[in-house]
Specification:
Blueprint lengths: L7 H4 L3 E7 L5 H15 L2 E7 L1 H12 L8 E5 L2 H10 L5 H6 L3 H4 L7 E2 L2 E2 L2 E5 L2 E6 H5 L8 H13 L3 E4 L9 H22 L7 H15 L12 H9 L3 E7 L14 E4 L10 E3 L2 E6 L6 H11 L2 H11 L14 H11 L3 E3 L8 H17 L2 H15 L3
Parallel strand pairs: 1-2, 1-3, 8-9, 11-13
Antiparallel strand pairs: 3-12, 4-5, 6-12, 7-9, 7-10
Helix pairs in contact: 9-10, 15-16
Length: about 400
């Protein structure tokens, strides 16, 4: 039963708009799950769906009240959320968080949705990253690598057989950032990672050089496929299944690129241990926030309470193929999804993907620099360019 500081009967026969960034096939899933909210409260919901580009264009207009916007808005946690908090004075959700005792459900994600101990969003979905492979292929080489040395040895064996060991597509640029994220997390930890991407640490720091020295070991050993800049991440997903590459680092959305009956042949493993910080994982988290201009705050909070429930998150994420962040939620029984649940529940901490942990201006320049690094492997020039980008985009 949904109960806050007001009764449902006081709010019934009213309506609420929900802004969503989604793919066309996802709309029916949201409508079916959210129908339960209307059944429980008699509050009609209207979805305002947009694709990625259109949503990101409209969100600032909705938050600035240039355009009459939805009452509740989809967004993404960490830096992307924090920038909205400062710019648009988002309403806090502290009272809702405390009333529903959400520390127990989402305590592991609290740093990515709070600013100075104030809560500004409700997490409703996330997904894991790691190493994907085709089981018959990887089993020929003794299984997925658990250590950095194991990954290097696997690359050597696969390359000797004429198989491209690691699939990487840089046509869209962003997949290359996963390698930076994980190497920096494993070697330097999550606090350092966040400080670096926030602009608080110089890229000339020896700890950053360490990241690229490890990465260069893979380049020197020719671990990645050729023609990376002519491959998309979807091309790599296809090549992995067709046994043209051995392993790839990607988010669990890759599973949707394989036929459902073929997924049983695919395996998942955490990114290998590298340094002393091996229990931090990347898990981009989707959240809902309140539109500061909404005149239906009570209805909106009632909807957020519904979305925060374990049963709602279970139903929604099983159908989406993602993971429910609520600690008591139920996960899909698909092996790749269950592997992700086990990984994230055992993590010391989770962080967002590269683009969600930094400013867009730095991200755009950094991605090009990282793509070029995997082509030429020049550490000195890469660090120089990254530091210049930091100074010009992240410093006051």
């Amino acid at each position: 039963m949904l109960t806050l500081s007001f009764s449902i009967s006081e709010l019934s026969a009213q309506s609420l708009e929900i802004g969503l960034l989604l793919a066309p096939k996802q709309r029916q899933i949201y409508e079916d799950v959210f129908a339960q909210f209307t059944e429980e409260t008699n509050i009609e919901l209207t979805l305002v769906p947009r694709d990625d580009a259109d949503y990101k264009q409209m969100l600032p207009k909705w938050l600035a009240a240039d355009v009459n916007g939805p009452d509740v808005l989809y967004w993404q946690s960490a830096q992307r959320l924090f920038s909205l908090v400062e710019r648009y004075q988002l309403p806090t959700l502290n009272h809702l968080w405390d009333k529903l005792n959400l520390d127990q459900a989402f305590g592991h994600l609290k740093p990515s949705i709070s600013v100075r101990d104030d809560i500004f969003a409700i997490p409703f979905s996330y997904y894991h990253w790691g190493m994907y492979y085709k089981k018959p292929v990887i089993e020929r080489y003794g299984g997925a690598p658990h250590s950095w040395q194991g990954l290097l040895e696997l690359c050597e064996k696969m390359r000797a057989d004429g198989l491209a060991p690691i699939g990487l597509g840089t046509e869209e640029r962003w997949p290359v950032a996963a390698w930076f994220d994980y190497l920096n997390l494993r070697l330097n930890g999550m606090t350092f990672h966040h400080q670096l991407l926030a602009g608080d640490i110089d890229f000339a720091d020896s700890r950053v050089r360490q990241v690229f020295e490890h990465w260069k070991q893979l380049l020197d050993q020719r671990c990645f496929n050729n023609n990376r800049n002519r491959n998309s991440w979807e091309d790599i997903a296809s090549r992995l299944y067709r046994e043209q590459v051995g392993i790839t680092l990607m988010g669990n959305f890759i599973a949707h690129k394989w036929p459902k009956q073929a997924r049983a042949e695919m395996g998942f493993a955490p990114f290998p241990s590298v340094g002393e910080f091996n229990d931090f994982e990347v898990a981009p988290t989707e959240v809902f926030i309140l539109n500061p201009h909404s005149e239906k705050r009570q209805q909106a909070e009632l909807f957020l309470a519904f979305v925060a429930r374990a049963d709602t998150q279970s139903l929604l994420n099983i159908q989406l193929g993602y993971l429910p962040p609520h600690a008591d939620a139920v996960t899909s029984d698909e092996p790749l999804t269950l592997a992700g649940q086990q990984l994230l529940r055992g993590a010391q901490g989770v962080t967002q993907y590269f683009d969600r942990n930094t400013q867009p201006a730095f991200e755009q320049r950094a991605l090009s620099i990282l793509v070029n690094f995997v082509e030429h492997g020049d550490i000195d020039s890469t660090l120089t360019l990254l530091e210049r980008a930091r100074q010009e985009t992240l410093l006051p």
